Structure formats: C-alpha cells, structure tokens
Amino acid sequence: MIRRPFLTLLAAVAFTIMLGPVVILLGVAFTAGSTLTFPPEGLSLRWFGAALAYQPFLDSFRTSVVVALTSTLFALALGIPAAVALHRGSLPGRRVLENLFLSPVIVPELVLGLALFQQIMVGLHSTATAALVLGHTVLLLPYAVRVAGASLALADPRLEEAARGLGAGPVRTFFSVTLPVMRPGILSAAILAFVTSLNNVPLSLLLTGPGVATLPVEMLNYVQSSFDPVVAAVSVLLLAGSVAVALVTERLVGFTKVFGR
Amino acid sequence: MANTAETAAAPGTPVVRLDGVSREYGKASGAFAAVSDLSLDVPRGSFTTLLGPSGCGKTTTLRMIAGFVRPTSGRILLEGADATSTPPEKRNIGMVFQSYALFPHMTLRDNVAFGLRTRRIAKPEVLRRAGEALELVGLSHLADRRPAQLSGGQQQRVALARAVAVRPSVLLLDEPLSNLDARLRVQMRQELLRVQRETGLTAVLVTHDQDEALELSDHLVIMNGGRLEQQGAPREVFPAPANRFVAEFLGYQNFLTVPGHGPVTVRPEHTRLLADGEAAGGDGVLLDAQVRGVTYQGSHCLVEVAAASGDGEATLHCLHPGDDVRPGARVRIALPHRHLVALAGGAGTEDR
C-alpha cells in the first residue's frame, strides 16, 4: 500500500509537529477545569464566555482590527503604485528598489519596532494607535508590493499599450486596465496583510502604550499573570477567524495564486 | 475622431511618412542604433510589410509609428501632419499584437468596444460598431465570452476586430500570426487580407516570414541592421533582389561572380545542367562544374555542384529535370543572361 514508507513517516511527523499543539490548544480551550492542562477535564464553553467578558480583550481586539484595517489600506495605497512603477515603469535600478521594498521582511521586526518607537512615539509624541498604524504599514508594505505586483508581473505588458493605442490616456488606462488586471493580487495582498497585522507581536509589543494594546500583546500580558484557559479560548477564536479568512481567500482567488510566487 | 474630411489628407499623401528616423539606445559612447536614418512612405490603402530577421529594427519602426517608442532623431508624419511627439492615444491607430493583448477582465464585446468608448461615441453607436467588427471576423456568437475561453486563432481575430472597430488611419500588425500553429497561420493570412480589403484600411505588417510577406503585401520593405535594404511590390522585389542580403533572405542560394556581370545570383530553376558535348543553345554563361550531390525530388532532381566561377569555386544548386547525373560527374552549367540577377555590394562566392 505505502510505497514510500520513509517519506510517509516524515510527513506524519511533520504534521504532528505542526498540528499537535493546535489540537492540544483546542482541547484545553474546551475544558471544564480551571488550569491549562491536557487532556481537558470535561467539556464546557465557560472559558469562551470568560474570554468574551474580559474587557481588555474586547478593547484590544477592537484596536487590532482598526490597526489591521487602516494599515492594510495604507500599505495598499502605497504599495499598488509602487508595484506598478516597478513592473511597468522604466525605472533605473529596478532590482535595487524591489529589494528595498522587501527590506522590512529582512530587518528583524524588533529592530524596526525599536527604531519606530524612538523616532515616532518618543520623538514625535505620537499616540500609540498612530504609531501602531504607521509601524504596521511599514511591516505590510512588502506584502502589498510583492503580492499585488505578482498579478502584474504575470499579465501581458502589452495590455496597457493596447489600451493606449485604442485612445485611452495614461489615467484611463490605469483605471480601466491595469487596476482590474491587478484585482486578484490586490485582494490577496489585502487579506494577507490584514492577517499579518492581526497576528503581529514583536512590532506591536514596542509600539503599544498605556491603555492601548493589540490583542496578541494583551494575550501575552494575560499569560504572564494568569494561568487559566481563557487565553486558549481566545487563541481558538483567533484561529477560527484566520481559517475563515483563508477559506474565503481560497474561494475567491485560490491559494496557489496567493502563495505561488 | 480623426476620420472626417477635415483631417483626412489628400488622396496622394502617404498615410505614414518616416523622415530620416533613427532610434538609438544606450549612452552616446556605446550607442546602439535599432533604426538608422530610415525614410519610408506607407501608401494609402496599401498592405505594407516590414520584413527582416530579428533585430533588424522592424518592430522598433512599427512601435515608433504607434507612438510607443520615441525616435531619437527624424520626423514621423501621420496623414501628412507631424506626429513625432504625439502620444499613442492621439494617433488614431489600430494595433494588433503578437500576444493578442486582449483585456482579460472584459467580454469580447467590451474588448472591441473599448476603443470606441474612448472616442466619446454615443452608446448605441458603440454597440452597433462593436457588433459589426465582431461580425467581420465571424465571432458575433461569442460576444459575451471572455478572452480566456477562446482559442489562439479566435483571440487574434478579436484583437483584429478591436483594432479595426475604431476605423484607424493605419492598422499596425506586430507579428500577429507568429503565435499560431503553422496551419492556422496560413489560414489567417487570407483572413487578414480579407479584413483589410473589406475595411479599406491601410495596414503595416511586421514579420520575419518571407512567405507571409510575399503573400500579403502589395508594398514590401526589407530591413537589415536598422536600415532599409530594398522596397517595392513583391513582384518587383522578389525577381530582382538588390543585394546579397535581400537575395538570401528571400531564399536565393546561388551566389557567384561571373566575368562581365560581377556578383550575381540565379534561381535553381533557371540553371541548366549540360551533359558532355551537349550544346548550350542560346546565349548565356557556361561554367565547368563537378557534381557534389544529387537529391531526388520526384519530378526533378536538385543537383549541388562545385562550379568554377569568376573568383574561385562557387556552390550552385541546380534544378535538373532528369535523373541521369551522379555525384563526381563532370558537367557544365549554363546560366542564361536574362536570369542572372546582378547584386550590389560585395557578393562573394563563399559558401554559406
């Protein structure tokens, strides 16, 4: 039956390592007991109730969503023109610019966070939310440029010329041809950016201020002081949200398109 | 719209005139000229073909006519007016690309209507003319499909419909048939010709396929190294290539130097292979030769010989009606004067 026993075993081990903790977390979240132990002591939804009743989680969730939405929008607003310029313009040093847009991915987020912390929060006395939005925009920009640009890189560069030849000026060409051609890429970039922002810890950790925290940071704070399954319940909710987003993405554009390049 | 009487130039004016046009790339020190000092007229109503090997500047020339590439010097006149720095959207052109370049997010109808919508034409008129154009290429029944649902040949017909729908002053065809398979390519030639005839449009085609060029064009422009080598009607150019490059590109294989003629070329069917003692008959050049190889082709044989020509030995290909020669045989080759095509420039006798 199994023709490649070694590979099969390897795959099984990999899946266990990847999914094992998730399964344990699921178990812990539904426990009826009051400690983070596995296997769960009976089944209940009490920790979900507790999580939804805990005000700091609700506040930080709202902050997270606001920050994720705003920074995604900003990243796209900056990233789409950048992607067009990179793929369609005759910019000198295209390669260098392309790598520059990738640099936030290469620079450790803590370093980026610290730099932003010093420059923006301390230097400009900005609010924590503004700093978070700015920091996350920087974080998400490479995704916007790369993923939105991928659909452009795959499209025929003659499309714009065809539009120009048919009498459309540069602006009309951009809105009636370039942007629609980029649509699947933009959608993918938006979803990917949103999820990335929502789950980010290192950058947010440095940019949160008094009374303002994102959900992952608030969760981190929580586990430092308490040891009950509330965090597990929140994690399961976050996981469910991410899976839902992934499924929607799959339905709309297909994962291969999003992560194919 | 630029198709009304006020902009239409006099009937004799060429639709496109290139006046000493050059296009150089790179810095002044190491500049590479894709097109050098090209002057060319595209006659009204003609099917003009720019023919040449890749890198000869034919595509750059077409892209300069379209306005996608700006000449580094010289002038481009469209309908008699200087259009050198006019952006493509204001040139009233219709362009068909090798890659079709159909808008993937639009139906065929919207693709074809695109150019009409940019021209502020009333909506019913847009739909009517888009429908007409699709009808012209026989794809009305697929008007609501997207390009991805079509075969390559169908896509290229839509691209053609999209280009002619705007009634351009010139139809620019950038190797439109190169992405199609061999059989379809030959079919599409006639389709292309039919559409051009029915619409009465002036067309400029870029191709590297000499058969396509000979079949389609009434004005043939042969280019090499960014320069014009020869132009004229195919019936004038083909029997009388001006130089060795043109001759080779049109499929001539025999190059030799004949005393009193200089460098010449001659087609295999115009040579005569004489057996020992056979009289030449008529006037012509007689060369001693030795048979190198014989290829049997049914109704005739293709005989390759090494002939003693004016400046050494030349390899000639001769069409011979019989099957009575064998490799190694000593023969004489008769070349009638009237079939010798004199070539300008240094047409050597070296083998290719």
CATH architecture label name of the domain at 68-224 and 250-259 in chain A: Orthogonal Bundle
- Multimeric state: heterodimer
Strand composition percent of chain B: 25-35%
Give the count of helical stretches of chain A. Answer: 12
Q: What is the N-to-C order of secondary-structure elements of chain B (H for helix, E for strand)? A: EEEHEEEHHHEHEHEEHHEEEEEEEE
Number of strands of chain A: 0
Q: CATH topology of the largest domain in chain B, anyone?
A: Rossmann fold
- What's the rounded overall pLDDT mean of chain A? 83
What overall geometry of chain B do the principal axes of the alpha carbons give?
elongated
CATH topology of the domain at 68-224 and 250-259 in chain A: MetI-like fold
What is the CATH architecture annotation of the largest domain in chain B? 3-Layer(aba) Sandwich
Percent of residues in helices of chain B: 10-25%
Domain count of chain B: the total is 2
Main interface: chain pair and counts: A-B, 19 and 27 residues
Protein name (chain B): ABC-type quaternary amine transporter
Keywords (chain B): ATP-binding, Nucleotide-binding, Transport
Pfam families (chain B): ABC_tran (PF00005), TOBE_2 (PF08402)
GO molecular function, one term (chain B): ATP binding
Give an overview in words.
The complex is a heterodimer of chains A (261) and B (352). Chain A is mainly alpha-helical. Chain A has a domain of 167 residues: MetI-like fold (Orthogonal Bundle). Chain A contains twelve helices and no strands. In chain A, helix 5 crosses helix 6. Chain B is built from eight helices and 18 strands. A six-stranded mixed beta sheet of chain B has the order 6-7-8-3-9-10, with helices on both faces. Chain B is elongated, with a radius of gyration of 25 Å. The interface between A and B is medium-sized, with 19 and 27 residues.
